[in-house]
Design goal:
Blueprint (H helix, E strand, L loop, with lengths): L4 E4 L5 H12 L3 E4 L10 H11 L3 E4 L14 H25 L4 E5 L12 H19 L3 E7 L5 H6 L11 H12 L8 E4 L4 H5 L7
Parallel strand pairs: 1-2, 1-3, 3-4, 4-5, 5-6
């Protein structure tokens, strides 16, 4: 049987590339879009890609974070945090469902959705919004789950926290394995799972579910 088509946004980051590797190993047809190929805030670009590729599975992975206190931030920065991290999920989901009403959706969220960070308010609030939207859509009959990485060893994380002990971080490859469980429909719609270095093996063993 032919494997399904998967579209992953923000497809050139470390987490996305780890997911793409596992998808391709299993024979899925994968389109991993960069910001240049499909800006998740540009409705026309999204429409064009969704119409042409028409995925069976959408992985909402694109994200944006630039830590800054609300005292020093500017309106453009606030807009980008909300529109990319939350708006992009709405836009891609809504347009994707238009072309495929049976679209399966996996959101790559963030532990920041449930954890406070003084200078990450826009990012934290947007990711919390993704969780609530996902739960509403699941109640509306959409096949959707959210898998949220905690502290993960990526280039973006390294740029934000250059002195952090890399041995304490979740590996992108391990996080990708949990995403594949979602792709395989092993979780009920509306499920939210936070993946940490400390719990990833328990999740992979099926010992931890919805959080």
């Amino acid at each position: 049987m032919m494997k399904k088509k998967v579209l992953i946004t923000g497809g050139h980051g470390d987490i996305a590339m780890a997911i793409v590797k596992l998808l391709e190993e299993e024979g899925y047809t994968v389109l991993a879009t960069s910001h240049q190929q499909m800006d998740v805030t540009d409705w026309e670009q999204i429409e064009s890609v969704m119409k042409e590729f028409n995925p069976d599975i959408l992985i909402n992975n694109a994200g944006y974070v630039v830590p800054k206190s609300i005292r020093q931030t500017d309106l453009e920065s606030a807009r980008k945090h909300i529109e990319i991290n939350l708006g992009g999920v709405f836009y891609c989901t809504e347009i994707g469902l238009k072309y495929n009403p049976q679209l399966q959706i996996v959101n790559v969220g963030s532990a920041a959705a449930v954890e406070t960070h003084a200078t990450w308010s826009g990012y934290c609030a947007a990711k919390a919004g993704v969780i609530m939207a996902m739960k509403c859509w699941a109640e509306d009959g959409i096949n959707i789950v959210t898998i949220s990485p905690a502290r993960t060893r990526t280039k973006m994380r390294k740029s934000l926290f250059p002195d952090e002990d890399q041995n304490t971080l979740l590996e992108p490859d391990d996080f990708a394995k949990v995403v594949m469980k979602a792709v395989h429909n092993e979780y009920q719609p509306g499920t939210h799972i936070i993946v940490r270095k400390q719990n990833v093996q328990a999740i992979l063993n099926g010992e931890i579910g919805d959080q």
